[in-house]
Amino acid sequence: MKTCDTGKDTCGIIKHETVQESKRTVITQKSCLHSNSCWADPISMNFGNGITQRSGITCCVGEACQTASDPLPPMNTVPNGLQCPGCYAENSYQCSEDTVRCTAAQTQCFDIAGKITIGILPLKTASKGCTTESECTAPKGVKGFDVDIVTFE
């Protein structure tokens, strides 16, 4: 068991899943953080063309972390009737759109362009698609990436 630094009062288990062209990548991080970084609902994003991302966090203290639940519930692919423009591109602030059918709790459309910094490497990206309300309401800085957002023209 690790002792957290001052100001970090809880443990977090953060799980991020990306599916692209039938390839599934899952990253799980365990870290000390401030309890205001904990949000209740997982984030789900659908960019179209078989590209999806999901993120979730479970917060715990002490021995409860040994049996903490998986922060990502099973994938729900039932369409909900909402459709959004969708696309994803790297090394560009623009992408070519298709129509994406939103599923389950994906009740919002999103349109984001900016630099995503992973480690020390900034990557220009553009993305549009369906997402959950929790993506819109998660506190800044806890969505998994450092994003400098640039608005589409």
From TrEMBL:
GO process terms (BP): cell differentiation
GO MF entries: phospholipase inhibitor activity
Assigned GO CC terms: extracellular region
UniProt domain UPAR/Ly6: residue ranges: 80-145
Pfam family, one: UPAR_LY6
Chief location of this protein within or outside the cell: secreted
InterPro entries: CNF-like_PLA2_Inhibitor (IPR050918), LY6_UPA_recep-like (IPR016054), PLipase_A2_inh_N (IPR004126), Snake_toxin-like_sf (IPR045860)
Gene3D superfamilies (UniProt xref): CD59
Subcellular location: Secreted
Source species, domain of life: Eukaryota
Residue ranges of domain Phospholipase A2 inhibitor N-terminal in the record: 2-67
Protein keywords: Disulfide bond, Secreted
Family: Belongs to the CNF-like-inhibitor family.
Protein name as annotated: Ras-related protein Rab-36
Species in which this protein is naturally found: Platysternon megacephalum (big-headed turtle)
Lineage, highest ranks first: Eukaryota, Metazoa, Chordata, Craniata, Vertebrata
